Amino acid sequence: MVPKFLVGDNTDHEDAVYIIHTEYPRFVINLEDDEVEWFDNLDNENEEEATQEVQNLIQQAEEFYQREVDRYEELED
What we know:
The chain has 77 residues and is α+β, with helices and mostly antiparallel strands. The chain is 39% helix and 21% strand. The protein has one helix at residues 47-76; strands at residues 5-8, 18-21, 27-30, 35-38. Strand 2 and strand 3 (27-30) form a beta hairpin.
């Protein structure tokens, strides 16, 4: 089973860190500039509800990344 969120990087974009959301709606966030690339369209007819869903997913992605950073720092200590 693939985790809901993954951290990614790419040597062609040295300063960028990416968070990949693997479940519907799939997307990648570039934390360097907060750009979001969507792989799926939201099927929600209610725009307000869709906006709230997107905001929640992005917040979860940011919380996931912070938790990962904290865990790496703990391992270094």
